[in-house]
Amino acid sequence: MFKKLIALILIIAAVYWSFSVLLPSNISKLDTPENQFSTERALVHLKKISKAPHYLGNKEHNQVRKYLLAQLEALELETEVQEAFSMSKWGNLSKPKNIIARLKGSENGKSLVLLTHYDSQPHSSFGASDAGSGVVTILEGIRAYLNTNKVPKNDIIIVFTDGEELGLNGADIFVNKHPWAKNVGLVLNFEARGSGGPSYMLIETNQGNAELMKHFVAANPEFPVANSLAYSIYKMLPNDTDLTRFREDGNIDGFNFAFIDDHFDYHTALDTYERLDRNTLEHQGSYLMPLLHYFSDANLSSVKSTEDYIYFNIPLFKTVIYPFSWIFPMLIVAFFGFIMLLIYGFKQEAFIGSEIGRGFVAFFVSLLSAGGIGFGMWFILKQIYPQYSEMLHGFTYNGHMYIAAFSLLALTICFWVYHKFYKPVNTASLFVAPLFLWLVICTVVAFVLPGASFFIIPVFFGLITLFVLIRQIKPNLILLALLTFPVLTIMAPFIKMFPVGLGLKILFVSCILVVLIFGLLVPVLGFFKRKKLWSIVFLGITLLCLILAHLKSDFSENRPKPNSLNYVLDSDTNTAVWATYDDALDSYTQPYITESPDDASVLNQNTMGSKYKSGFTFTKKAPVKTLENPDITIISNTIIGNSRHIGLQFISNRQAERVEVFADSSIVFQEAVINGIPALKDNTSGFVFKDRYHNRLFSYYISDNNPLLMQFTVPKEQETILQFYESTYDLLTNQHFTIPSRQNTMIPKPFVLNDAIITKTTIRIK
């Protein structure tokens, strides 16, 4: 009994250990030595730059830029502002103003760039985490570095980009237009997609990661959170950080450091100074300082490689790395060891054929039940709580409680199933199935997702465990518990990481992962009696977690409901509608949309640009207001050969913040130049704006009231019809409207156009 208790404590301790090493437990204070990073000193800056939303073009954005320039100049760095027009691949045009500073190195090697962005997401995000946290990490980090009185070998360039939230526009103009970009050897980029949790390291490279990982391990950050599974997945997905522009346009490698927990705060009015996790900011500093000291003197011409490395973090050893070339030899060794142990086990009469079969039934029933029930249960929960659909993030305020509930449910299923199949003498036989499936998974990932091949490490310890079970009828449970440390310390954090990173829709993956981990714990837990009782206990805790989640399923001041309301005036027909992106109307939107709203399909023929390509859900007729129309001037209209060359100028008379241009898909464009930026041509057709979504050509985010200048080349016989949607974010303050402020239990819905007065104007050119 005593050994079972110790074994259980060891298992719990391993799980706790796996999470405790992901984040610093304390933050550095104001009295931290001047040559060291201080989170509290960084927070002084953060409080000043996150007082209000500061998106590209608004007044607060200008104030933040002035503050940051003053701080960099106070450090006696060479400082400048770079500005130019940029059109992103998303079709977003803007004129970002990058803040750039440089500390000259003593040698002429490659430069090190410290990168983040200083603009917040339009229109309501305060930008404290995204990416004010990156700004103040770099500000405090470079201040501490300068106080070491150390002269770096490499130039250190600080780049606070602008317009990142609109389409990486600032990074675009730095990489492609600034002379300093030509000598950059490495980038350290600090980002956020939430307001807390550990910061994950992700690599951006066009080649292999081997040299980057060797350098990273040599720099020795205190709390590394990185794994090549995330690296492999990241390379398969469309990337959208500033660092992507460096990699794609400049073939410049770099490290991303981004925290993703508390995702419900991302791009919302909740992204505030108060809600940023202080330990998370400390974590960013714990990355920057050792890497800054290391790479400021490293040979940055040596970071390129054609070889990839497996890497993962584990307590005590920090970051473990080894070549991809080891994947198949390790897999072959594991299979060989497994087969030899099967032969040896049967010779020793430690295995019973029928019990091995029962082990496969038990494990697959557990796996399929947990995954299936987990998938179905989330579907049911979304029906019970339709308000969750308003959280476009895919992660609800009570999401962490659901992760706990689903994980405990998977344990409930495992204990219930194994209590049916376990016998005092069949533990070794039951363990064959989990080991075999882990080997199958390792084989699949070796071909499909090689970055996940570190999954083989727990398998090797599982093989040692199987050997012990073959040799001993009553093995030492403390030893067996210690042999589970690799699977627990490596894999347990993934149970939380997957739904946090990819949304609650994949909670079933966490359930499956719990079963897989449980499978390698069978040698220990198999000797525990009263598995049915354990199952009942875990079921009870599961229900408790679901009750706690229910109690936090509503909206409150701390968990505000995202909602949206816009006014759309069609100047062509002199009609207007209220429009919302909400599925569930509330006391803020219903007075305008009413209890009998109209379908929004007509308005959605032209879909405004948004992160998830969201369309309006409901509209309702609204009073027509007298709003000043823009000045749209046809500057030129010339026919040359079979083409018509059109020049247009759009000037807002309402101080608009955003203009979107639409054209029916039947209208083709041979060429287009927007504010001096050529539109990209489709490789097949040779046309521009070929693959537009719901008629959208591009969006222009206005700063300094700069006009929109357009040059189009179209077929000469074509009647070119352009629709302009001009937006201001002043619905709640405009003198023409008396819209009340939201209740303190509500916030503007992120990722969509919100609180906007939108006017539509059409022009025809022939």
Helix content: 40-55%
* Strand-pairing-aware structural class: alpha+beta
- CA-based gyration radius: 29 Å
Strand content: 15-25%
Distinct helical segment count: 20
> How would you state the average pLDDT, rounded?
95
- What is the terminal-to-terminal distance? 89 Å
Main beta sheet: strand number and arrangement?
A: 10 strands, mixed
Which residues sit in consecutive blocks of at least 5 with pLDDT less than 50? Answer: none
How many β-strands, per DSSP? Answer: 26
From the structure above, extract its key features.
766 residues; alpha+beta; ten-stranded mixed sheet; 20% strand
Descriptive notes:
- The protein has 766 residues and is α+β, with helices and mostly antiparallel strands.
- Strands 2-3-22-19-24-26-13-14-16-15 form a ten-stranded mixed β-sheet, covered by helices on one side. Strands 1-4-6-5-7-9-8 form a seven-stranded mixed β-sheet, with helices on both faces.
- Helix 1 packs across helix 17 (485-502) and helix 12 packs across helix 14 (427-448).
- The radius of gyration is 29 Å and the shape is globular.
- The model has no long low-confidence stretch (mean pLDDT 95).
